[in-house]
Amino acid sequence: MTRRWFAVAALLVASAGFAETARDPAHLNISVALFDTGVPENRALHRDLEIFPRVRKIEALYLPFVLRKTLTASGEWGAIRVVPDSDVAAELLIYGTIIRSDGDVLGLQIRAVDASGRVWTDNVFSGPTSNEDIYQAIADALLAMRQTLDERALRNIIETSLLRYGQQLAPMAFDEYLQENADGTFTILRLPASNDPMLERIERLRGVEYVFTDAVDAKFRELSTDVATVHELWREYRRQFKRFQQEESLRVQTKPSSFERGSYDSMMERYETYKWDRQAAEEQENWAVGFENEMGPTITAIEERVEELEGWVESRYAEWQRILGELFELETELPD
Amino acid sequence: MRIRNLILCCAFGAGLLACTSQPTVSESLQSFAGGMPVDLSGSWERDYSRSDDIQAALNSTMRRIYRAPSDVTRPAPPQNLDRVVALARFADVITQFDVMEITQDDYEIKIARKDDFTMLCEFDNGNSKRTESEFGAEVCGWNGSQLTSYLVLPDDLLVSNRYTLSGDGNSLHVATTVSSGSSRTPFTINRVYMKFEPPESDFNCIETLSMKRVCSTGEIVP
After folding, report:
1. Residue A72: its pLDDT value, please?
2. Fewer CB within 10 A of the end CB, N or C, for chain A?
3. CB neighbours of B196 closer than 8 A, spacing ≥ 6?
4. In whole numbers, what is the pLDDT of chain A averaged over residues?
5. Size of interface A-B (CB pairs under 8 A)
6. Once rounded to an integer, what is the mean pLDDT over residues A204-216?
């Protein structure tokens, strides 16, 4: 009961006003959803595609933070947060799917959509070895898109974002402001007054949610150094394996066997060549297990934080929705 | 490409004499529905008393060659005998391991052999799936309750292993047949393995990427 009254009090206290409109609209807030591992369900394909599901799982958690780092370093954006699930009300939401990650090449399918439903990019970004190049390319693509939008369009994104967030929590109060079009885009029908109490509450609640997300984010940053070091080691091993394969292939092609075909030595040579190749492939699988073992505690810590966030948001959403509904009824009921 | 050709060649039973005297690849590549027909998983150690002696197996093969009808009027050419001896030596060396560990699920069977590479049998929805590189290829198939694995290497070198589990599940018979394009006669050697429970280690070990294998007598925290 005490907690409930605390929540109600927090919602009733006046906020500092519609602060969102005061910021530079070019500095949109970005939410980066945890990446899709891109691991096909059919396990029989994993070896052919050189996919190591254990490593992909870690990369899907880790790589969004590398992207966040690049975007933050550009200084072109507002707050950039990694979120466990698709935050559809985000001003700009980035989804990513890992389509290739073998140490030599990283390929990411990146889709960025703003709150009004406008698609900023939906492309594959890939490149050799250096991940930084890929993230820079993504950052450049987003920046290029932003530069095509005028201030009014950018402000419209911020307003739509807040209204969509409000719609999630208090549909009875915010449905009338927005219209979803057939193509999945959103149009603002009209804006609430800048001192609308319900709007102020929504802004405050969003702020609370962001504080929690940021806490998770900060925790991850402490752990990301470990992941980065081991991930780089993994990539280096993979590169060495590729080099070994290429060298072996060249050796077999350019130096034909000196043994008579069908002789014992010739057969052993063939067998040993295959054996070394297979053992090298087995070693890779051991590396993937080693990667997971080494990162296990780190990943568990991240997953626990994410779970904590999801549980917290879920329980608070239900509470906020109920309280906002009650407040809306109180504020809109006609006097006797 | 050459390896793929060999598999196809065996599948059609033409071109390679070796393929006519042992199970062809296509015969054994039967699909299965649901789980695998037999569970071969476990630790296996060689039963020397029930396994072939290489000299005895070679003598037996030689006797067969000389007894063959085509050889009554024309003895086997010395070149072929040299090749059979080479095959026998080869078969002996690649079946030297005395312990193997088999793991299996619905997608794959891994046969880890001491001091050798782990043989791999992959399946996709019950259908045999080839594991291939430019140095060779592996493919397996169930023939009833028998598993046969094929290793196809360049120079038409083919190694097949037929695994048969005993009724009580405690022994595993492995018939290894090697053949090459330069020998008319394949060579087969039989090994028998008994199931055993590996003793528990005093150490707890895990693989790590930066420190490789890490072992401790206590609990390991990476």
Report:
1. 94
2. C
3. B43, B44, B45
4. 85
5. 102
6. 82
Model pLDDT, residue A18: 46
CB B221 within 8 A of CB B125: no
- Alpha-carbon distance of A333 to B111, in angstroms, equals 74
How much is the average pLDDT of A238-257? Answer: 86
Burial of A80 (0-12, 13-18, 19+ CB in 10 A): buried
Considering chain A, what percentage of its residues have pLDDT values greater than 90?
39
Query: Which of A234, A264, A281 is closest, CB to CB, to B209?
Result: A234
Closest chain A residue to the Cα of B124, Cα to Cα: A44
Q: In whole angstroms, what separates CA A83 from the centre of its chain?
A: 6
Q: Rounded to whole angstroms, how far apart are CA atoms A219 and A230? A: 18
- pLDDT per residue as tens digits for the range A86-115: 788 899 999 999 999 887 789 999 999 999
Tell me the shortest Cα–Cα distance from A150 to chain B, in angstroms. Answer: 49
Question: Which of B94, B207, B222 has its CB closest to that of A297?
Answer: B222
pLDDT band at A248 (very low <50, low <70, confident <90, very high): confident
**b/e map of B49-81 (b: 16 or more CB within 10 Å)?**
eebbebeebbeebbeebeeeeeeeeeebeeebb
Question: Which candidate, A10, A1, A3, places its Cα nearest to that of A324?
Answer: A10
For domain B2-216, give the CATH number.
2.40.128.20
